[in-house]
Amino acid sequence: MIRKLSIAGAIIGALLVALLICAALFADSLARYDPHMQSFEERTSAPSQQHLYGTDHLGRDMKARVIYGIRDDLLVAAQATLIALIAGGVLGAAAGVCGGLADKVILFFGRFLASGPAILLTIVLASRGLAFAGMTTGLMTGIVFILIPGFIRVIRGIVSGSVDKGTNIIKRALIITGAAAARIFLSIALAILVYAGFGYLGLGAQPPSPELGAAIRDGRNYLGSASYLIVYPALALVFTTLSFNILGESLIALLQRTGSRNTFERA
């Protein structure tokens, strides 16, 4: 029963993630309006046939801004996850191969970052970072440090032999690939949440970026008169992070049922 639920969750999660990726890739076609185009005659217009999600305080189409906001958040999260995968993978592989003192030092470094300093470092880097290509490089660097410990633990667990050596080659390859994929999906969800959170605090994407966290921050001032300005970006953020979490957690549940529990316990 649990296995069937895990398989169903993985399929649903994969479909939702695929839908988000398609929305990001075809944002130009899905959005009828430029997310930055202002129309002062249509400021805070309620949802209508012309503007399905309404317009914000500057007359910008909210549907377009939500779609482009999803794309921006996915892009930043994917880049941060890729960098963290490379850095954490190298460190995790070194810990698993070398063992001994090197293993202890690398694990201590990962646990140290995960215990809180990574968040503090992100705050410092985000507040002092320089804007580049529409995003804050300091915040990106901080998110990478937040994600690295997870990859260190998973890759170390794989390299050091958490997967049963008696398992056939094909099954072992599936377990290793699944473990890495699960960590990637969960890291993307975390990266999106952190990036949006800092955007809400004003330390992330800056105007006129349609980033979801910044959109929620802008909409809070109109919660009483135009609640849709905060509802639609918030729902998009929840849907995006939940989709990646469902896929990642379902993969973990499936892998644990196949006998690779130690990979995640040690990870």
What class, by secondary structure content?
mainly alpha
Question: Into how many domains do the coordinates divide?
Answer: 1
Number of strands: 2
Low-confidence stretches: 130-134
- What's the CATH architecture name? Orthogonal Bundle
- General shape: globular
**How far do the termini sit from each other?**
26 Å
Put simply, the count of helices is 10
Per CATH, the class reads Mainly Alpha
CATH topology-level fold name: MetI-like fold
Helix content: over 70%
What kind of sheet is the major sheet? 2 strands, antiparallel
Rg over CA atoms: 21 Å
Beta-strand residue percentage: under 5%
Secondary-structure element order, N to C? HHHHHEEHHHHH
Overall average residue pLDDT: 87
What would you say this structure looks like, in words?
The structure is a single chain. By secondary structure, the protein is an all-alpha fold. The protein has one domain: MetI-like fold (Orthogonal Bundle). The chain has helices at about 1-25, 25-30, 60-100, 100-115, 115-130, 135-160, 170-200, 210-220, 230-255, 260-265; strands at about 130, 135. It has a two-stranded antiparallel sheet with strand order 1-2. A hairpin with a 2-residue loop joins strand 1 and strand 2. Helix 3 (about 60-100) packs across helix 7. The protein is globular, with a radius of gyration of 21 Å. The model is unreliable at about 130-135 (pLDDT under 50).
